[in-house]
Amino acid sequence: MIEFKHVSKLYSNGVKGLDDVTLQIKQGEFVGIIGLSGAGKSTLLRSINRMHEITSGELIVNGSEVKSLKGIELRKFRRSIGMIFQSFHLVTRTTVIKNVLTANVPDMPFWRVLLGAFTKENKIAALEALDKVGILEKAYIRTEQLSGGQQQRVALARTLAQNPKIILADEPVAALDPVTAKQVMDDFKRINKEMNITILINIHHVELALNYANRIIGIRAGKILYDGPASEVDEDV
Ligand code: ADP
Ligand code: ADP
């Protein structure tokens, strides 16, 4: 469960990224966050896993007050939340499986993963994650040889390998063509249904958001404008 209580985020240049946001998201929800560029969508997501600190209010995620987490608790907390970006953040000059393995051995420098410092269990978990997103056969291919959609699936597999309760996806399909974008959205939907992982997805493409999310949150200037079922959103808004 994710709970925002009167949360604001003020950047040092005076911009209000979030302005008095109150909302609750239950485990297993699939939420599409929509709004124009600069509305505050990324600011909302980055608050949840504490990529940045909120300025005021209270934010509770899976029973923890996010602000007060420290040390090992904070590391464990961050691992329970997966993050997916528009640009895939992969090391493209190595194999797909080694990218996924970095999620399994998070406290190890990447060069040690490259040298093979992982267990058989790590490897099985990585292969299982690749299977879940339908690219098991690409495991030993260099990542740079994959299409954009396939690379986003690698990023998704890497996130799944860390067993997250929540996945935050910041414009994950914005760089993909429409057909590939739908395929990646299908993956998110399947993961949400089969694994009961909460998914929050920032998406500027309103129609895609309405087709896939169960709940839509609309943001403007850091404020929640709309929060309700996707089926009740008036597409003209
Ligand atoms: P904070 O208030 O969270 O400490 P800062 O203002 O110090 O944030 O900026 C953090 C980073 O974001 C800096 O690298 C800065 O260049 C960048 N940044 C600054 N203004 C903007 C903006 N309007 N949009 C996006 N990034 C910005
Ligand atoms: P969105 O994801 O909806 O495009 P953001 O959350 O990135 O919106 O940005 C919300 C507002 O905060 C914008 O006005 C943006 O310029 C500003 N902003 C984002 N990051 C920073 C930063 N690090 N420093 C200062 N301003 C920022």
Automatic annotation (TrEMBL):
GO terms for molecular function: ABC-type phosphonate transporter activity; ATP binding; ATP hydrolysis activity. Coiled coil: none annotated. GO terms for cellular component: membrane. Its EC number is 3.6.3.28. InterPro entries: AAA+_ATPase (IPR003593), ABC_transporter-like_ATP-bd (IPR003439), ABC_transporter-like_CS (IPR017871), ABC_transpr_PhnC (IPR012693), MetN_ABC_transporter-like (IPR050086), P-loop_NTPase (IPR027417). The keyword ATP-binding applies. SUPFAM superfamilies: P-loop containing nucleoside triphosphate hydrolases (SSF52540). Keywords: ATP-binding, Cell membrane, Hydrolase, Membrane, Nucleotide-binding, Phosphonate transport, Translocase, Transport. NCBIfam families: ABC_phnC. This is Phosphonate ABC transporter ATP-binding protein. It comes from Lachnotalea glycerini.
